[in-house]
Predict the 3D structure of the following.
Amino acid sequence: MKIFVNRQPVTGPWGGGNKTLSSLCEKLVSLGHVLTFDLQDDCEIIFCFDPRRSNNGYDYEHFLRHKRKFGTKIIHRVGDVGSHSKPELTRLLRATLPNADRVIFTSLWAKEYLQYHKKNGTVIENGALTQFYKHRKKTSTKDQKIKIVTHHWSDNEKKGFDVYSTLGQLVHKEILDCIEFTYIGRYSSNFSSTGINVIEPKDKLELSKILPAYDIYLTASVEEAGANHVLEAMACGLPILYRETGGSIVDYCSSFGVPYSDNVASLLNGITKIINRYDFYLDNVKQYTRTTEDVVDEYMEIINEFD
């Protein structure tokens, strides 16, 4: 089949959606499909990763005209619901999704956030790139200090900088003298980074080697539609400390970590809980095995429905 994909993969440190996009494109080519980023008359499937206008000028109106004229099928993957300060994207999704032949949501939370109830909606949770399993943490750290880490490529405030800043202050004031806290990625200039070891963004190869050196993975992000950062951490073997308002993060991590609420006491209790039963949580997270390849295989099952 000739399949049009409305976003092109990019290289370097980038969000999780780009990793899935890259893997899907590679899979399509390997299976002999004709992959194009140019919407041509003989395209049989439009695979939409983002309904907004792309760099080459296509938007959802182009897809609808193509569908009406040629009977092209539209598969729409929802990787971002606009919950991070993009209400215009939320409105656009609610307007466009009913026109798709199949809709893929990266979490049940995302499906419910958009209040999508049509039967053609499917939840396919994200997975981690195989690379992140190659250096998986196997044993407890023997260092005196517990090393906590997180990573984000976006500096959007909903990534949880209020929590990261608070934890950094506690470390700086030696209230938490048994902890080191590291942030990998783009740190928001609107929040203090005192007490935090901030490291510049790393590519997937570097990151897969760096993360297993830490003990606990902290995420404070809220309302995530398909959070890949926690999946990468779990693939590396790190127990997860996650916010109760994390959206998809709760879907992904409820069996592999400890939740906390929006207060310092709850956060500190969560850290203590993992430390006190560290071997249990370390062994438990090893049960997480889902990969991006698994995800793409499930996407292909949907694509094959139209073959």
The two ends are 7 Å apart (CA to CA).
